[in-house]
């Protein structure tokens, strides 16, 4: 389930460039060193500084899950996370899911196979949530999947195909791990 740290909804507590800080983190496996305002939000840094446009901004209130990324393997709402808090961490976005040769991850393949892809705002967050879930629990039961995806809201569809997609992703990930073992 996505973690939603407390956040002051008013981002403008410091002027641009004031109280800036230098952070170092791995973004999709590549080391980054950037200077950010002390009150910079991770969502904005990923989209604006690093071109990760797959990280979606929707509610920007930590409610919908569209902005979900993985920080040290755990799903977090990047709209509700200060950028400085990922100093020293590993951050993963949807841009890092496919292999460099374009081979889709088990999660991407499963969502495609099972019709779990929905609108462009929800899909990347759902994929990252699923990736985080399967790292915590490679064979989640349906109740666990429901509990996790309850943190990602969708306003236009039922969740059945998404549930099937997550179950299929677990199967495919298991097969992939079996192949590489
Ligand atoms: S945009 Fe972050 S939870 Fe909705
Ligand atoms: S799939 Fe995006 S709001 Fe429903």
From TrEMBL:
Q: Which Gene3D superfamilies match?
A: 3.10.20.30, [2Fe-2S]-binding domain
List the Pfam families hit by this protein, alphabetically.
Fer2 (PF00111), Fer2_2 (PF01799)
Q: Which PANTHER family match?
A: OXIDOREDUCTASE WITH IRON-SULFUR SUBUNIT, XANTHINE DEHYDROGENASE IRON-SULFUR-BINDING SUBUNIT XDHC-RELATED
- Lineage, top-rank taxon, reads Bacteria
- Tell me which CDD domains the record gives: fer2 (cd00207)
How is this protein named in the record? Answer: Putative oxidoreductase iron-sulfur subunit
Keywords annotated in UniProt: 2Fe-2S, Iron, Iron-sulfur, Metal-binding, Oxidoreductase
Coiled-coil-forming residues are none
According to the entry, every stretch annotated as the 2Fe-2S ferredoxin-type domain falls at 21-97
> Is the keyword Amino-acid biosynthesis assigned to this protein?
no
Protein's UniProt keywords contain Iron: yes
Q: Check the record and name the InterPro entries matching this protein.
A: 2Fe-2S-bd (IPR002888), 2Fe-2S-bd_dom_sf (IPR036884), 2Fe-2S_ferredoxin-like_sf (IPR036010), 2Fe-2S_ferredoxin-type (IPR001041), 2Fe2S_fd_BS (IPR006058), Beta-grasp_dom_sf (IPR012675), Diverse_Oxidoreductases (IPR051452)
The GO molecular function terms of this record are: 2 iron, 2 sulfur cluster binding; metal ion binding; oxidoreductase activity
Q: Which organism is it from?
A: Rhodococcus opacus (strain B4)
